[in-house]
Amino acid sequence: MIKKNFGFGTQIRKSPYFDSTVKWGATGFSVYNHMYIPRDFGDPEQNFWNLIETAILCDVAVERQVEITGPDAFKFIQLLTPRDLSKLSVGQCKYVLITNSDGGVLNDPVLLRLGENHFWLSLGDSDILLWAQGVAVNSGLDVTIAEPDVSPLQLQGPNSAEIMIKLFGESIKDLKYYWFKELDLDGIPLVVSRTGWSSEFGYELFLRDGSKGNQLYEKIMTAGKEFGIKPGHTSSIRRIEGGMLSYHADADIHTNPFELGLDRLINLDSNIDFIGKKALKKIKADGVKRLQVGLEIKCKKLNGPNTTFWPLTVDNNIIGKITSAVYSPRLEKNIALAMVDIEYSKIGLEINVLIEDKNFKCEVIEKPFFDPKKKLPQNL
Fold first, then answer.
1. What's the mean pLDDT when you consider all of the chain?
2. Which of 120, 144, 191, 327 is in the most buried spot, having the most CB atoms within 10 Å?
3. How confident is the model at residue 8 (pLDDT cuts 50, 70, 90)?
């Protein structure tokens, strides 16, 4: 029997699903957005296969929401992001960046528009609540910035559609990719979106009453039993295969969107005004000095994801670093996301990586590493 010794304290919050995740076998936790998140339900490779072959349920309550309301909420949310939101409809989601005055990336959340002047920013690991409140104080705009009682679960994998039909009926099939509905499941208030941090088909269920967390978790696990659902955690293998960013790993305050190849999220030629516009115009005009690339690491199978940044060298000179690396059992090779000096970003180029005082060869390859057109998460 596995002894669960997590060393919890009161200064870090527990998810509304905490008791259920422990019941269903969580054996390891880490901290994200000042909250505990289950990271270990056993073999991570089995978790990966569960995700891509059947379905997994992930406690991602750590994806905290920043809620922006008030008469000037739309003006304010546009101030925070370089992405043009003029065509964002109520009921729609968009992947956005939040930048500072230097053009640095502060976060890459999913934005949900619940009303004309009602928005949620569904965050990666960061303190955007404090940033938004600080910006609001000096904006001259009439807005309220708060963290609502909202806690997401992710139901991801090819069988997630059948599980959702069992829970909500056939009408759930009408929900389009990157749209959401406000629903009620036996008295449990939810926002359900066709999104997720997995690169697979799936849904996020945003619980709007934390007292019903374990009830919701158990309902989904019960409904999913016949479809092979397993308790799980966000898969580093699958998200790296899909080229998805992990904030603080693959990007931070010193990274600009052009280095990440996210030019499509930056609208410099429109009339919209946003924090960092002047800096980003200059960065684009000057050209970037670094670029994120995909790598294949030519060594024996990596024993789990990297826990430190691995330096990349050419002729003994450091030219960048690996930010996320993992062995893909599907691709049967070690893959990585890296930030390199731009002259070393060409496909096919060989670079050296230093891993635990040993040098190995890497090759720059196309990313995403699997499903480059991202058809899997979009197709029902």
1. 96
2. 120
3. confident
